[in-house]
Amino acid sequence: MSAASTAAIGHVLQGVGVGRRAVVGPVAQVRPAPHVAADAPLLVDGVPADVATAHAHVEQAFADVAARLREQSGRSTGTVKDVLAATAQMADDRALRTQVLARIDAGEPVVSAIDGIVEMFATMFENAGGYLAERVTDLRSVRDRVVAAAMGLPAPGVPSLERPSVIVAKDLAPADTAALDLTNVLAIVTELGGPTGHTAIIAGQFGLPCIVRVAGATALADGADVAVDAADGTVTVDPSEDQRAELERRATVERTLESDTAPGATADGRAIALLANIGTAEDAARVAGGGVEGVGLFRTEVLFLESTTAPTQEDQTAVYTRVLRSFGDRKVVVRTLDAGADKPLAFATQPDEENPALGVRGYRLVRTHPELLDTQLEALAHAQAATGTTPWVMAPMIATAAEAREFARRARAAGVATVGVMIEVPAAALRAQEILAEVDFVSLGTNDLAQYTMATDRLRGELADLLDPWQPAVLDLVDATARAGQQARKPVGVCGESASDPVLALVLVGLGVTSLSMSAGAVPAVRYALRHHTTAECATMAAAALAAPSAAEGRAAVVGLLHADVRETLGA
Predict the structure, then answer these.
(1) Helices 136-151 and 78-91 meet at what angle, rounded to 10?
(2) pLDDT, tens digit, for every residue of 78-123?
(3) Residue 532: is its pLDDT beyond 50?
(4) Can you tell me the distance from the alpha carbon of 542 to that of 485, in angstroms, rounded to the nearest whole number?
(5) CB-facing half-sphere around the CA of 17: CA atoms within 13 A
(6) Residue 35: helix, strand or coil by DSSP?
């Protein structure tokens, strides 16, 4: 009998919540990877295969896995489609496959050969950090599928869902996520992962409650009822009737908040644009009809990361045109290619770097591949001309005023009318006044800003407390940037995860931020919080957060300043 099946009513597991929604439903455990001994023989008709037969079986297994992933990608949309396409490329990787087959040809058992090479690549990815480290889950998912296919075992993954359920797994690879029947998925809970990993991002894309780093989650019994509360980061086994009623009340409140689609503003009428984060043209079409006022972050690197060659100007123009047309005359902020050593491109590979997070990434790619940026800027200018809509175009990973000046020169030369930069590096926040003198606007990427300020890898879930956007040092840099924007009379937006917290959103507005961009599902609660507090009240909250000695004390101080009805409605 599992630990979960003997747990007392109300037993609580703790993790890191993503979003603020909550649901109650039965557990559906994802099938684990097959456990096959490293020296297990590959049997064909009950007889151990010879080397040539084993070679052929494994080669076919890689091909079949890649084909199934491509098929799943073709049936998917948005972020899931793109991540699946990238995972299929991993299964198709010539170096990975060739090295596995070479070991088999040398007489090594099939599972041992696959495990040895995959773990070698996984170690390389983990040492590289950043985007590559996040792909280790995908790499091991490929391994599990290839082993199952080669050895004639059932493929691991998500079970067929016959009723709305809570998906529980050690971790979810993109292939697992793509296999989900979203009409029957209530929430996602994982033992591993981090709040900015692909599982959390995809859950946010579909408005699903998600909790990561939940120790003991895989011990929950299949079918056991659990309450998943992303706001608290808790999974409660067999919740009480009172708790069920409270979560239903919150769900009713959420539906009520979603019915309000008015523009964002404080109680005294100060306009605060509430925008959506998107990654693809499909994302744009999906959220454009909701209660968002435009796009505050279009992550264009998705278009690049799934390509083996650089997308042409024509291809890019077509995508950017679709996004602009989806939003008509509404604001669309486009981030130029945010890739490099930590998000490797097949057509712009960087030399090995000891610390990719501090390497050639984002705007810095212009040092080695200026044509990538110039082509993208020209495509954006063409989309601007084709639609009559002016995109706001910004560069990531700007560290100095000189870089901002050079990016602005390139963008304007290409015909881009509105030019800005991301503030993700403490140096840029400290020199925001000089940077704003060169561009039309700035946008704070608080995820990376927290990472660089706190010297903490944003993918390390066990360090989530240091990455808390309420950290006073991070808020100090937001404050410095917002004050520079007010002095320059230029917009300062926030497009990091902090914008999606309705309580922290009040602090950001109090600091002087002019727009907030987030997953579309987070907008209603932020709109509600803003509408019930004045600009002066937001400023008081901001001062309280800045004066606090810690992230937890800062949030507690601000929660204490909320109007009582807002505190109750938001469950803060």
Answers:
(1) 60
(2) 666 776 787 888 888 888 999 999 999 999 999 999 999 999 988 8
(3) yes
(4) 16
(5) 19
(6) coil
Q: φ and ψ at 25, to 5 degrees? A: -175, 170
The rounded distance, in Å, linking the Cα atoms of 101 and 58 is: 8
Q: Which of 55, 57, 198, 382 is catalytic?
A: 198
Question: Which residues make beta-bridge pairs with 332?
Answer: 295
Confidence check: pLDDT of 130 > 90? no
Distance of CA 231 to the CA centre of its chain: 17
User: Which element (helix H / strand E) includes 257?
Assistant: helix 241-258
Q: Locate tokens 């990434």: which residue?
A: 361
Please tell me which of 194-198, 236-240, 360-364 the model is most confident about, judged by mean pLDDT.
236-240
pLDDT digits 0-9 by tens, 412-456: 999 999 999 999 999 999 999 999 999 999 999 998 899 899 998
Length of the chain: 572
Catalytic residue at 198? yes
User: Which among 202, 174, 167 is positioned nearest to 188, based on CA atoms?
Assistant: 167
Q: Mind giving me the DSSP string for 70-114?
A: HHHHHH--HHHHHHHHHHHHHHT-HHHHHHHHHHHHTT--HHHHH
Of 255, 184, 262, nearest in space to 25 by CA: 184
Q: How many CB atoms lie within 10 A of CB 169?
A: 25
> What is residue 456's predicted lDDT score, i.e. its pLDDT?
84
Of the residues 55, 495, 533, 538, which is catalytic?
A: 495
| Token couple for 246 | 């409270």
DSSP lists the bridge partners of residue 423 as 444
Q: What is the band of 72 on the pLDDT scale with cuts at 50, 70, 90?
A: confident
Q: Classify residue 553 as exposed, middle or buried by CB count within 10 Å of its CB (0-12, 13-18, 19+).
A: middle
CA separation for the pair 42, 456 (Å, rounded): 44
State the virtual CA torsion across 434, 435, 441, 447 in degrees, nearest 10: -120
DSSP secondary structure string, 14-75? E-EEESS-EEEEEEEEPBPPP---TTPPPEETTEE--HHHHHHHHHHHHHHHHHHHHHHHHH
- What is the pTM for the complete model shown? 0.74
Cβ neighbour number for residue 560 with a 10 Å cutoff: 11
Pairwise CA distance, residues 114 & 103, whole Å: 9
Buried b (16+ CB within 10 A) or exposed e, 311-323: bebeebbbbbbbb
